[in-house]
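Journal club side-thread
Mid-discussion, someone asked how the predicted structure for our own chain would compare to the paper's figures. Pasting it here so we can look after the session.
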Amino acid sequence: MRIGILKAGKGDSLLLSWEGNHMLIDSGIPSTLRKNRNPSLPPIKDIEFYLLTHIDYDHIGGFLNFISKAQRKDLHPDLTFYGNTLELIRYKDNDEVGFHHGSALSDLLTTLKVKSKSLLEGDELFLKNIAITVLSPTLKHIKLLRDKWMAAEKELNKKDHSDEFVSTIKKKDKIDINSAPLEFLKNPINDILNTTSIACLVEYKNKKMLMLGDAHPEIITGKLKAILKSQQTERINIDIVKISHHGSKHNTTVELLSLINCNRFIISTDGSRPYNHPDIETITKIIVNAINIGFPKIYFYFNYQHASEFEITNEAELDIEICRIVTNEVIL
């Protein structure tokens, strides 16, 4: 399994490739799917599965920009499209891709004769030797998103989704493994766009990957606990985790990390303002968890150099080697 980590500005875009098959998970900002930005990206026509985790523009902008101009011959003949609320996503048939004054994506997919399916927690997919278990979103939160759509759409239209690198913040921390890290939880109801993000467990042969989109930790924690209870074990072995919400301190908790054995983590972001992700608090929690498990090394994979430039001031004293890797691909 190859995991392509595309340059997507502040956003997310991963490409899973296996046995000649491809699945695109999110598509970043509009420029993400251009060859000059991501030359390792295969032809769009070769991608059979699309999964857009949620309706934030920094996750779907690239796809909307492409699909609004596409003809059926430009797409894989068996393309299947997965999302959460397809009927709410809107596009424009010009370069000003947006959420308002456009046509519904679900209508466009129907016109193009593209198969589509909405996903909820508990759904299972079996796609050419990979198994996908959906952990989020819940039906309750999807219904709430629909109820709050007018307000959510206004929030989307206010966001700055440019990918200009302007951050000057240097992230720095000292790790005390005997002190409990602070938690910064948000109320899922007040962050409904991210709460409804699709998150999933992807299994291929003997490999397991957690793809968390921008999902909320308490939802993922609840689903993982149910899986662990059914397996009568305390932790699930995971080969790699795509950390939720670009490494935001609000989306990774000590409790969530305590349920997994993993020392490889993908963080997708350019580190730019206004969010300056990843948050050092998230990095610290991940490192402490790996130390407590007993890993000799921990690997962080980034798609941009600046996002990897965090400093652990007592790193030399810790019983773990911290590897910061800027790359466009991880091979499992």
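Post-session note: The two ends are 5 Å apart (CA to CA).
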